[in-house]
Design goal:
36% of the residues lie in helices and 31% in strands. It has helices at residues 9-21, 28-40, 78-88, 101-115, 151-166, 174-183, 230-244, 259-268, and strands spanning 2-6, 46-53, 56-64, 69-71, 96-99, 118-130, 142-145, 190-196, 199-207, 213-220, 249-255, 271-282.
Amino acid sequence: MQVRRYSDPVEFYERVEPFLRTREAEHCLLLGLSKRIAEQGYDKPLYEALVEVDGEVAAVCVRTAPMNVILSEMGDPACAALLADDLHLIWDALPGLLAPPEPAKAFHDRWYELTGAIPELAYRETIYRLDKVVYRPAVAGEMVRATEKDFHLLLEWITAFHIEALGNTTTPDAEVIVRRSLNAHHHEGGMFLWMVEDNPVSLAGYTGRTANGIRIGPVYTPPEQRGNRYGMAISAALSQHLLDGGRRFVFLYADSDYAPSNHVYRKIGYQPVANAYQYNFRAGG
């Protein structure tokens, strides 16, 4: 069992994609992220590594600094501890971790031993997969693709989403997300607005194209528009749009402890496939 780091994102993606694709829904975030980096590069410190056992990929790890570490599913959580050791050769401190429950525990236990950083559970997420939309609410309005003229509204709403949904966790740059979405080829990503009488009332984005699927997120409805099922309407409409465009599956992450959103997604047709835990690391002592 050994860690192997990669400096070439293309070589890394080609090496890990077959392993990640065996559990495509669970790895939708890692698949989409490593694919985008292989195609577009990354201009900040980047860590891409895997654990090999008998020459085969057993675990995958990516960190796009300053963001959190992301771990794949793995048969042996000891792989996560090895990756913690290797990351510690580069960074003395990390903001946090997103990983399946058992690898998350193995990693944060080892990180505590190495650094004294205390792991704090920020939130638990459920990874969902949909292959057929089974319910679309009868809601006034229509879904419209966002364009450059919507930039400032998108920036405002994505920022609000990060504050509300992600709380005190390390969050991506909202302007980068909006600009990337607006510039993306339509089969790779974008954002839509739910419009009622020419007024935007909800937002949904998509990104992270995989071999067979694509991931929805974020989904955001401003507080003054909630209670009208606009979030459900745009989630269902975008899911159907992506399936109609040739995707076999649509994936998404949802806060496991927020019952309303989980009810909405299950009613639309999403099925839970796995859990992922987000931890923040707090300096000890």
